[in-house]
Design brief:
The protein is an all-alpha fold. It is built from seven helices and no strands.
């Protein structure tokens, strides 16, 4: 599996988690594997776990850099993409920030509105420059 495919599957799981907050991420991961909706992939699982584990810190980065936007006003699809990309930017040193941003924009083009891709690009770029 390519990292792009792993990111897409990770996005779907993070998005699912936003609707099923009572379920643990391991429960969601196990069910997805059992139903053969995702592949076994170390990068995918690391990315999902880190995104969920560090969500509060990630959300603080979003809140402090999304000027004029409160986190609860950001739609679930772009928010899941942003959280995933920020987890990668903040906690995966082997992945350049530019790659994470580009991959997030590509996910947004596929799953979100056209305006969301621009918003995501701007927000992630702002966070990356502030680090």
């Amino acid at each position: 599996m390519t990292r792009r495919e792993a990111r897409e599957q990770a996005f779907i799981l993070i998005f699912e988690k936003s609707f099923n907050s009572e379920a643990g991420i391991d429960e969601i991961l196990d069910l997805a594997k059992e139903l053969e909706l995702i592949d076994n992939d170390e990068f995918l699982e690391s990315l999902v776990h880190k995104t969920c584990e560090m969500q509060q810190e990630i959300d603080e980065h979003i809140s402090s850099n999304a000027r004029g936007w409160k986190i609860n006003r950001i739609a679930k699809v772009p928010l899941a993409i942003i959280r995933l990309a920020l987890a990668e930017i903040l906690y995966f040193e082997d992945v350049p920030a530019g790659v994470s941003i580009n991959e997030a924009v590509e996910l947004a083009k596929k799953y979100a509105n056209p305006e969301d891709a621009s918003f995501i690009n701007g927000l992630l770029g702002t966070v990356a420059r502030s680090l």
